[in-house]
Write a structure and sequence with these properties.
Blueprint lengths: L2 E4 L1 H18 L1 H20 L14 E4 L9 H4 L10
Parallel strand pairs: 1-2
Length: 87
Amino acid sequence: MRKLIVKPLALQEQRQTLQHSRKMFGSRAARAYEALIRRAYRALCADPKRAGVVVSDDDATLTILRVLHDSMDITQHASSEDDQSGG
């Protein structure tokens, strides 16, 4: 299993998404959504060559830069600057 690093911006976005989910749909839904995110992290670690994942020469570490909701425009929120942020 690859090492997983979740950058601070991704953690913040994940928290905000879960808070929004809790507010709109309740605690049970937020817990289910959090479990879904964790399953997605595990799936990415198991197979990092999925669509939308950039694999470098050293694929022993998987770094999550952003956590974007399905309704968000990825091109608007993701940029080449994201992979440069040390945060």
